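Slide 14.
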Amino acid sequence: MDDLSENDLAAHLRTLEERLHDPKVRGSAFLTGELLDEDFTEFGSSGQAYGRADTIAALVAEAGQAGPPVRSESYRLKRLSETVALLTYETAAENRRVLRSSIWRRTNGYWRMAFHQGTPTKG
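Slide 15: predicted structure.
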């Protein structure tokens, strides 16, 4: 059983989520792989679905490109069960804002992202 309070879990998952924004983590297949569950799926803003291997490869490839830092805000946690939590937030980079949702699952004592979706906003 997870002994983290709601606030502690929210802070912990936010930290893990923000690690995935870090170019040093994104540039490492090993470090990114530690954060993504074995059956990870992403629904991209392109409308395509990506699996774990494709996502890791894309993040590693993107990490070498210099871009603006990702700003994230308005984090909200909804615990779906003892071992599953939904984290939602918003990111901003240049003139692009994206609503994001991630499902995190605790397996073998570690929280890993099982699902992610980013949806660009109009404003």
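Speaker note: The chain has a mean pLDDT of 90.
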